[in-house]
TrEMBL record:
Compositional bias annotation for Polar residues: 64-76
Species the sequence originates in: Rotaria socialis
Coiled coil: none
DDE Tnp4 domain residues: 324-486
One Pfam family matching this protein: DDE_Tnp_4
Record region (Disordered): 64-85
The protein's name: DDE Tnp4 domain-containing protein
């Protein structure tokens, strides 16, 4: 093509010929630069001027009429398409659109990292149902928000810097979503009614059904995970739940199968749950017991670490083992021999026994059994010392063996083996009350021994042990008792957590200091100076000055809270028909009072209790009661504690009769004989 002169720069290098029909924008720029051109006149441009005009077109935004027309047509087309698309889409009210970005977590809005995954469909459906937010396919989320491909129900949606338009879905997308929701409903209808695979189960649900928190259950599941597998009938996690639900609720295997919606008839449900129960039981016996129960799982130095301030102060820093038997009720048997062997003449029921060996802080060292109900604690202990070689080899001479009075026949055998038995002194026949020294020594033993009773109470919170046990389950009873004991050791630990604090050290030292304290009131009563009725005058507690004390002061006075817990029910029974707490004051001195407290064990027995107090010095200086342990100076009996607690604390804090106990008592119809006369005077005679 021959070179022509450029219309703009007059250079003879023009190679482009333009017309107003195709490039009217060039003519517009020429007009802006002062050129005068006719619309039918063609122009020629060199490359340099062409690129310059293109740049100016972009900078100034000059457009041709054709482009304006095309853009207008395109805009109209786009608007119509958007309108058509909007008409095709359906807006879901109250449902937010999460956005379709893949750069941030749809839940917490964190930037994409290696811990994120594409959000699975079940989790997206959970997001829609639980949080009312629609997330399209492909969005990403952190793994920590998911559990078993489901969205955790307590997860918090971060709404900061998030556009939240209402969700608009095309009919096909909405139809697929509707089908997915129907599938979710169908899955829910066939899912277990109680499903421990469901992340929405709360901590309270776990405690109610299994007796363990969600975190504790998770620890157990991780322990058995590699040793138990899921099957077509149940998940491994649900199998563990079945085991603990059986122990916690004592429901039948068939009832548990119904809870988990196991397919098949009732017999198949029973078999599936029974097999799951046995599988979990065997795994826990193999993997849990060796680490958390039995003589071999603790060294002697570790056992001494379980001593409390009280056991160290009273008996020295030695291995201290508390022995106590507990029982589990069974049914009658068609075997006559077995029926006779399990019948307890004391309880008048069929039962089997276990012997628990606990350390001073309530940690279970071992539990042995079962034994027949006809055996007493002493005979069972004697059998253990002769047959359990591992236990006898672990123990050493000088170890402390704490027992109750039911072990009196084995105390000598313990001494012969070189151990130091500690038992409350047995009240000799014909003697009505322990001496002050005997009662004080018994209190030291009781202060250490109570933890084994608390351990048994904690064990029997699983109703399998507190209800009557079916005879066909007796072969599994030993494993079940040991599994619960081991799990309590593992996940809950000792009953006394802070067992060696400075506060406990002070209390233990104070108890030993009071061992030799003389009981002044006991001497006055024995000499007859306080026992005659003529020396007392009745007075209403409202008109009576008594030192006010706080609960912490009372706990220190009684060396614990047990007596305080007993005081409320004693006080309720002591109130007269007018709601007054009747007391008597000595005529010789206003600082000694007397009350008659009804025994909680016998209708015909009431005890006089004397309290000496001071309004200037120590609030309570002495106390004495006619009950078996009422002469002690280390702590106080419940009768003495009732008087002190009510007068020094309860009456100043609006003490009221328990409505719950009142309703229970009133729900039973009481029959009075003609000889019965209601006692409204509260003038008791000591017996």
């Amino acid at each position: 093509m021959p070179k022509k002169q450029c219309t703009r720069c007059k250079n003879w290098k023009a190679c482009r010929k333009l017309t107003a029909k195709t490039h009217d924008w060039c003519y517009s720029l020429f007009y802006l630069e002062g050129f005068s051109l006719n619309a039918d006149q063609s122009i020629c441009l060199c490359n340099r001027c062409w690129f310059y005009l293109c740049y100016e077109k972009t900078r100034t935004g000059v457009q041709s009429e054709n482009e304006n027309t095309n853009d207008s047509n395109a805009m109209d087309t786009s608007v119509h398409e958007d309108q058509d698309q909007d008409q095709d889409q359906l807006t879901i009210e109250n449902i937010l659109f999460s956005g379709s970005s893949h750069k941030k977590c749809v839940v917490c809005r964190d930037e994409v990292n290696t811990t994120m995954i594409t959000m699975p469909k079940p989790a997206r459906l959970d997001l829609l149902v639980l949080k009312r937010m629609y997330a399209p396919h492909g969005v990403r989320c952190c793994r920590k928000h998911l559990w078993n491909n489901r969205l955790l129900p307590d997860v918090k949606i971060n709404m900061d810097n998030r556009q939240t338009p209402m969700a608009k879905l095309e009919p096909t997308v909405l139809l697929n979503l509707f089908n997915d929701l129907l599938g979710l409903l169908q899955e829910a209808s066939t899912a277990p009614r109680l499903d421990f695979m469901d992340p929405s189960m709360s901590n309270e649900d776990y405690l109610t059904w299994t007796g363990w928190t969600k975190e504790q259950f998770e620890h157990m599941f991780m322990l058995i995970l590699s040793h138990i597998r899921s099957s077509s009938n149940r998940e491994a996690r649900n199998a563990l739940a079945m085991f603990w639900i059986k122990l916690k609720t004592n429901l039948s295997f068939r009832q548990i199968g119904s809870l988990f919606n196991i397919s098949g008839d009732y017999e198949n449900r029973r078999k599936v749950v029974s097999r799951s129960f046995d599988s979990i039981r065997q795994v826990l016996v193999d993997k849990l017991l060796p680490k958390h129960l039995g003589i071999g799982h603790l060294s002697r130095s570790e056992a001494i670490d379980h001593n409390t301030s009280f056991s160290n102060e009273f008996f020295g820093k030695k291995v201290t083992i508390i022995w106590d038997g507990t029982y589990f009720y069974t049914g009658k048997s068609s075997s006559h021999e077995f029926q006779r062997s399990t019948y307890s003449g004391q309880k008048k029921r069929h039962l089997v026994k276990f012997m628990s060996l606990c350390l001073a802080d309530g940690y279970c060292l071992d539990t042995l059994g079962p034994f027949f109900g006809t055996q007493n604690d002493a005979s069972i202990t004697n059998h253990i010392t002769k047959t359990k070689n591992a236990l006898m080899e672990w123990c050493e001479p000088g170890d402390i063996m704490i027992v109750d009075r039911g072990f009196r026949d084995i105390v000598e055998a313990f001494s012969d083996l070189g151990y130091e038995p500690k038992m409350p002194i047995y009240l000799p026949k014909g003697q009505k009350q322990h001496t002050t020294n005997e009662a004080n020594e018994a209190q030291l033993v009781t202060k250490v021994r109570w933890t084994v009773e608390s351990y048994h109470a904690r064990l029997k919170k699983w109703r399998f042990f507190s209800d009557r046990i079916e005879n066909q389950l007796l072969p599994k009873l030993q494993d079940c008792v040991r599994i619960v004991s081991a799990t309590l050791n593992w996940l809950r630990g000792s009953i006394i957590k802070d067992h060696n604090t400075n506060h406990m050290d002070r209390l233990a030292k104070l108890m030993t200091d009071r061992l030799a304290k003389h009981n002044y009131l006991a001497t006055l009563v024995e000499q007859g100076k306080l026992s005659t009725k003529q020396r007392w005058k009745k007075i209403n507690e409202i008109d009576f000055d008594f030192p006010e004390m706080e609960l912490e002061d009372l706990r220190q006075l009684f060396f614990g809270s047990y007596q305080i817990k007993q005081s409320q029910t004693y006080a309720e029974e002591h109130l007269d028909v007018n709601g007054d707490f009747a007391i008597q004051v000595s005529k010789e001195t206003d600082e000694i009072i007397r009350c008659a407290i009804q025994s909680r064990h016998s209708n015909s027995t009431r005890y006089y209790a004397w309290i000496q107090f001071s309004l200037t010095g120590d609030p309570i200086t002495s106390w004495y009661c006619q009950c078996k342990s009422g002469a002690r100076t280390v702590g106080a009996c419940a009768h003495e504690a009732t008087i002190i607690w009510f007068l020094s604390y309860a009456r100043h804090h609006d003490f009221q009769y328990s409505n719950g106990r009142r309703r229970i008592q009133q729900s039973i119809e009481k029959i009075l004989s003609d000889e019965d006369e209601p006692d409204e005077s509260n003038e008791f005679s000591a017996t």
